Amino acid sequence: MKWTAFIVFLHIATFCNAQEKIIILEKLYEGKIIDSNVTSKLILYPNYIPYYYSFDVKYPLSSQTMVKNANDFLKRKGHFNENGYLTFKFMIDNEGQMNFVKYSQINQNYEPKVFDNDFVKNLCGFLKTLKNWEKAQYGKNKTPISYVSYISFKIEDGKVINISP
Amino acid sequence: MYHIFPLKLKMEKLLILVLSLIFFPSFSQTQVEQSQTFDCNNKAFRDSLVSKYLEKKAHQIDYNNPKYQLYCDSVLMVCPNVACAYQQKSIPYMKSGNFEKGMKFLNKAVEIDPEKYMDYRAFMKCIFTKDHKGAIEDFEKAEKINPNKFVMDHSYPFFKGISYLGSGNFKKAEIEMLKDIELQTKNDTSITAHFNSYLYLGIVYLEMQEISKTESFFLKSLDQHESLPEANYYLAICLQKKENARAKNLLEKAKKAIQNGQSMNEDNLLYANYPYQISLFEINQKLLELNN
User: Fold this and answer.
1) ipTM of the complex as predicted
2) Nearest residue, CB atoms, B99 vs list A65, A106, A161
């Protein structure tokens, strides 16, 4: 019964053009826009924000491997003396593509700070190398669904020392 | 269709107004004066607010429904000293990676009720924000408040141990992991500790290159959860040089377990990876390495 109600609810999805999607996405989750690209496979749902955890879909790599890959990528971009958390939030569309990336930045005490712009771009560059996002599905028919996900990089002395989630 | 969001916000403002009018004789009174109207120092009164707005309302809807925050705010408008309303407000933020807002509300909960929320914040720092130093500091404060208490199914030394492990202090990680096992077994050999306690102690010894100790703890972990992917994977790493075939077999077991959806069985795995948690990628890489 709960699933039926949920599926009916989801079926009132918003099919709209890119500009209309951007207007909705600007308000949907917090952060500064770094990539406003949206695809036709991104479906939005009025009154419902599906998060990665509702479908058990984190990026299919361990945190240790992601940390190593991020640092290998950053090594080629020069050294930055940065500390804190740089968090990217985005939507994964029905085909597993990343859409509409925003970022937020805080220091180690969870207070707002501003990272070097080039460092942000470099880390976003690494984020874009992640191409194997899980496709979320729901219900018996395994209907595809777009969802919000995030990756937060914990930075110490310009290096990624950990990744959430 | 696109007016749904603004319309919803208007509805929320209206709800705040309605709740306020019910509770407050004059809308122009300050929050402090309003609090004095009600006995916010009375636990029964505070509990009635929690029951009315959190248990019967907020807990019945999705965390990300804007009304969820509104119900928490309704409690705080009446009594700004209800710690659990702040903790509940923090949950959706922490789970969606907004650590700035999440920690702001969680800090407020700890400030009001450190006895109840210090260990929870420590856990969130350990597993969600990977702030090992902050987690250890909070667990040390929590130990002074509530010695030998557990949070999220584990002892404080368990999380301190994985925080030390995450920060590369293996000696301290070993001490804490041993304490965790002692707290569970009370040195009675007939009692077994949690399989993840043995798993992480095994990982600590693996990092310390104490291979003989490592194996026994991974085996103890597998005694309780024979398909635990991490125990099979890290045991395979221990055995890869001397028992290649057995190592490959363990990796195959780990692979099958992950494909079947088996895991470390921790409640918060949906929201955040645990330290040293593995994925199919690492298993396949190791299998490839052993097959060459």
Assistant:
1) 0.90
2) A106
